[in-house]
Amino acid sequence: MRWMHFGSPPNNMNALYKLINYRGVQNHNKRSRLGSSAILSVLILCFMTIKVQAAVCYADPKQAYEYLLAQENYETQAREQAVVDINSASEGELVTLDGIGSSKAQAIILYREMFGPFTSVDELEKVKGIGAKTIANNRARMRVQH
To answer: Could you tell me the pTM of the whole model?
Structure first.
């Protein structure tokens, strides 16, 4: 398939290119080809504008840097305040808890798969490497949903 003047298509635009097949357009006159090109251009433009998010512009680089730091702090706070259901949490969610690294998160998941869902947050003490202090530090952020 030949791609007119647009070059090779982006991976996420394959559906658009299937709508307008160049081979079918080849057999039509020049006016038809221009109409198809215009339709394709409008469709591409529509999909590109949907995915674009407006970014805040700053004349001063210091203000831009402060804005980025503030955004990062908001994301960190949101992540740290999120409640984690220990019966359905993934490794990535468990790692957000204080004192829980990748190996302890995997141990929690393995215990859950072997012995079934936890009945209380205190039952986490049965998992190797998880102690009362880790549970106490994270109690407000953990829950058990049956």
So the answer is: 0.50
Range of the domain at 118: 76-143
Classify burial at 60, counting beta carbons within 10 Å of its beta carbon; exposed 0-12, middle 13-18, buried 19 or more: exposed
Quote the Cα angle for 81-54-45, to 5°.
130
Q: How many domains does the chain have?
A: 2
Count of all residues that appear for the chain in the document: 146
Question: Residue 115 CA to chain centroid, in angstroms?
Answer: 31
Q: Answer whether residue 20 shows pLDDT above 80.
A: no
Would you say residue 1 lies in a domain?
no
- Asked if pLDDT for residue 117 goes beyond 60, the answer is yes
Domain assignment present for 24: yes
Q: Helices in the chain by DSSP H: which ranges?
A: 14-19, 22-26, 30-51, 61-81, 91-95, 102-115, 132-138
To the nearest 10°, report the CA torsion of 110, 111, 114, 117. -110
